[in-house]
Design brief:
- The protein has about 300 residues and is α+β, with helices and mostly antiparallel strands.
- It has two domains: about 150 residues, no CATH class; about 140 residues, endopeptidase fold (from Nostoc punctiforme), CATH 3.90.1720.
- Helix content is about 45%, strand content about 10%.
- Strands 1-6-2-3-4-5 form a six-stranded antiparallel sheet.
- Strand 3 and strand 4 form a beta hairpin.
- Helix 1 crosses helix 2, helix 1 crosses helix 6 and helix 5 crosses helix 6.
- The longest helix is centred in the first third of the chain and has 16 residues.
- The radius of gyration is 22 Å and the shape is elongated.
- The relative contact order is 0.10.
Length: about 300
């Protein structure tokens, strides 16, 4: 089944029916189904108990009814309204009625008081799925979730950094609030230091600080040219800066200016048409992607991943 078909024919109608929709919830449920069943398997591979495209176990389903929906009558009625018949076998419905299964998946996240990330932040969606659906007891991983999402959505198999948008911008905003300055050669010590403790940071130091603390990739190096060499050797996808940096597509990118004579190089991140960078006179900051100094000097740009 195509993701677009599953979204429009099952997830969106179900969420509209029970009143807990929106782009964020839709994307979380679509990602959950892709991770759990690849939108193909209605019965657990290997003979396990899970059923339906969300691979919910009957025990989990029954517990939701007994210990949550039993106390939320209006919601229970809305979920029942998605069944083919009020007297139908609920487990059969879970396996074969995708609208009902989607509603039960949403109720599962509701019951767990899941804080759903913003649509487009696939790394954060993966973390949400892992915490509230698969849990620490499950064998699934956040990286597996992102890889399955990318494969199903036709996204390139080039390497990606799984950076959380919420964490990245939280750290950046804290650095700005703390009036952290730019300082050539200045880094965060230790690398996981609280933003309020960082008095100055240079361009590559900020990039490494954000990647380190907003993702699980702790191998990303320091130094602008070391970072560019790292991305090149890892075969991250190189893209045209003027074409990609202007896009409002929730992808994180990184760009570089070459060192020239006594002038140091520069590195900055780009997200939805604006930079994330530390630069002279400002420190950590955001500005339009097409600032003249950046457009004139940029030598290369890489896709890092959805954020």
């Amino acid at each position: 089944m195509l993701p677009s078909d599953f979204l429009s024919n099952a997830i969106r109608p179900a969420l509209n029916k029970i009143g807990n929709g929106g782009a964020d919830a839709e994307e979380l449920l679509l990602g959950t189904a892709i991770q759990e069943s690849q939108l193909r398997h209605r019965h657990q591979i290997g003979g396990g108990p899970a059923v339906g495209l969300f691979q919910m176990e009957p025990a989990t389903h029954n517990d939701i009814w007994s210990n949550y929906l039993a106390y939320h009558k209006a919601l229970a009625a809305q979920v029942t309204g998605l069944m083919t018949s009020p007297t139908a076998n609920k487990i059969t419905e879970l396996a074969n009625n995708d609208k009902y299964a989607a509603a039960m998946a949403r109720v599962h996240y509701l019951r767990r008081h899941a804080q759903i990330p913003h649509a487009g932040d696939i790394a954060a969606m993966a973390a949400c799925w892992k915490r509230y659906w698969n849990t620490h007891l499950g064998k699934g991983t956040e990286r597996q979730y992102v890889e399955n999402w990318n494969a199903m959505m036709g996204i390139s198999h080039a390497p990606q950094l799984l950076v959380s948008r919420e964490k990245c911008f939280s750290l950046l905003n804290q650095l700005i609030a703390a009036k952290t300055k730019y300082g050539l050669g200045s880094k965060a010590h230790p690398i996981n230091a609280e933003p309020s403790k960082i008095k100055a940071i240079d361009c590559s130091g900020l990039v490494r600080y954000l990647v380190y603390n907003a993702s699980k990739d702790h191998s990303f190096p320091d130094g602008s040219w070391t970072q560019m060499d790292y991305l090149t050797k890892k075969k991250f996808r190189k893209v045209d800066y003027k074409h990609k940096a202007s896009l409002n597509d929730s992808w994180l990118r990184i760009a570089f200016i070459k060192k020239s004579g006594s002038h140091p190089g520069h590195v900055w991140l780009i997200h939805n048409g604006k930079t994330i960078e530390s630069h002279g006179g400002k420190g950590p900051d955001r500005r339009p992607w097409n600032a003249s100094v950046l457009v004139k000097g940029v030598c290369c740009c890489f896709d890092l991943g959805p954020m």
